Sequence to fold (266 residues):
Amino acid sequence: MGRLVAGGGARPELKTVWADLHLHTVASACAEIEMIPPLIARRASELGLGLIAVTDHHTVDNVVAVQRAAAGYDIRVLAGMEVEAREDVHVVCLFEGIAQALAWQETVYAHLPPLPNREELFGAQYVVDETGDYIRSNDRLLATSVDLTLAEIVAQVRALGGLAIAAHVDRPSSSILASLGFVPEGLALAALEVSRRCDADRLLRQRPELAAWPLVRGGDAHRLEEMHRSLRLTVQARTLEELALALAGREGRSAVMGAPSPPYNG
Fold:
């Protein structure tokens, strides 16, 4: 039974949800061919994940397909994207719905160089349906940076109602610490992400200033074995609004990093 609140109504109980908010499909040239919607949904179910986010490089082409594939497992799929800023900083951008994500994609496409993808150099960028069947290839070069600054990306994502998370900050390249050396004061990030094998306690001993930010773990999965119970959320619902409350530690919500990823034995 829900808790009674003023006025006699019932407030839903908080519940625990395991999440992985950073994964790629075959729309990302760097992803393995196994990263198709039905296999992603099945692996998420095997891991007990209740919330995942599809975050391909500079596109949301396969978000709806993964949402449809995951519906039978009662897994909520957020629309997302991984964007590379002008400063060579990767940012995970998350949205509540596909409409906002498509609006963001339109902006991102306008700020990518007008170059074709060269599959022989960068790999294929496949758009598929919920069964994993091929629909088309995205011929736009996505494996590059946009001509937007980190600050511009964060501000525009927030203006669309989304959340921006600095990706894999512990990595020696394509991260905010590797490229800038620090997290700019006043940057409205929702959190900092560490990679799935990162020893977060060690990182905080080395960089104690990072303790001022919410820290999350992300799978950044490019193959099924890299999907991970990355984040334990205490929330009322699997929504972006509840995720924002959990990251901020407000109103009883919380977000706790999962353990570093162990070797995969599947």
Notes: The longest helix spans residues 98-110. Confidence is low (pLDDT under 50) at residues 1-8.
